[in-house]
Amino acid sequence: MKTHLSMKLNFPNTMIALSAAVFFTAACSNDPKGNAVSDSVKDSLTVTGVTVKGQSFMMPSPMIVADMIKKSGALYDKNMMNSTANLSKYSDGMKQSLNLGIYGADLGYVTMYENTGDAMEYYKTVVQLGTALKITGSFDAALMKRFSDNVGKKDSILMLVGEAYQRSDKFLRESEKDDAAALILAGGWIESIYFALNVYKQKPGENVAVRIGEQKGTAAGIVKVLTDLNKPEYADMIKLFSELNDAYQKVEIKYTFAEPTNDESNHVTTINGKTEVKITPEQMTDLTAKVTAIRDYITK
What we know:
This protein is mainly alpha-helical and about 300 residues long. The protein is about 55% helix and about 10% strand.
């Protein structure tokens, strides 16, 4: 299957932390039920990235995947997320950071579906992990109260989540916590692909398949980020991500460059190049197996 697309990316800062790593910017369209995220909110959460060992990696943010999933017509499925009951399993820094990325993507998903009870449950879980990792400035009592007061107001909640992301980004950059930043990025990226693959399995569609295939470059980037940290204890995890990257290298992508358009007043860069993605059902099955193996390693 093939498609062509152009992408609109907003680069207000390097926003990493919980927003860690997702995609599908080009999948945004008008929600037939009138539930689309407002442009101002969408633009504020469009791009995320991380700088490790002086190298920057940018990619679209996880709220966008949740928006795309909802617009695909897929029903809300709490079982697709990592249960908050698993939180007590994560006692070391590596698992806490990876699962902070996982739960951050889960929070984006539940927020997009406006499930009030689950939104509070996942927000509290994110706060607990952030506190355990000493990213304390991102989740103070005042922000928690504002979140509670605005539950049910999707755009307000998304803006608050974005504020927490930006606080976390600032903290991680200033404290040079490369390990935590990279692991949060990897965890959030995997969870979002896991969501997309599950949605594709339930409701196969070219749009979702192409968004998954477009992550070929990101897969290679994640492996490089983790490898560059030079941590022997990450060896098993890196092996799993490398196997996923190997599977991704079979996906065919052709990019035709066109000069980007810069909107200085709104700090928006529109990428006008065209991308053609070819991904087969067999490749999708292989990607699903590899992503599931990584997610099981992280969450169990």
